[in-house]
Design a protein that fits this description.
- There is one protein chain.
- By secondary structure, this protein is mainly alpha-helical.
- It has helices at residues 2-43, 49-77.
- It has 2 domains: 1-46; 47-83.
- It contains 2 helices and no strands.
- The longest helix has 42 residues, at 2-43.
- It is rod-shaped, with a radius of gyration of 36 Å.
Length: 100
């Protein structure tokens, strides 16, 4: 009877070793895949998040400026003499002789 238990124990040890080997192979395959993906993505011409946010801020500022210029052109085309519209957040200038 002891020979059957020993045979069973040896069989379990072999299966455990095989399972460990397959788990190690899976980890190695995953690490290799991740490394290849990093190399592939690194080779693409992509911008960083900081660069994207900087360009986005510039675009917003340009859009605001375009809206101000369009309003000025529309007013000039309407025939009125128009001072430059104030940018959002700009402070009003004091006019000479008015005390304001």
């Amino acid at each position: 009877m002891q020979s059957q238990n020993r045979l069973f124990d040896d069989f379990v040890k072999v299966l455990n070793g095989a399972a460990g080997t397959f788990a190690g192979m899976g980890r190695e395959a995953e690490a290799s895949f991740r490394e290849r993906m990093r190399e592939w993505v690194g080779g693409l011409d992509m911008v960083s998040r900081d660069e994207f946010e900087a360009v986005k801020a510039i675009a917003v500022a340009a859009r605001e400026e375009n809206q101000l210029l369009k309003a000025r052109i529309d007013a000039l085309e309407a025939g009125g003499s128009v001072a430059a519209p104030k940018a959002p957040g700009a402070r009003a200038k004091k006019q000479p002789g008015t005390g304001h």
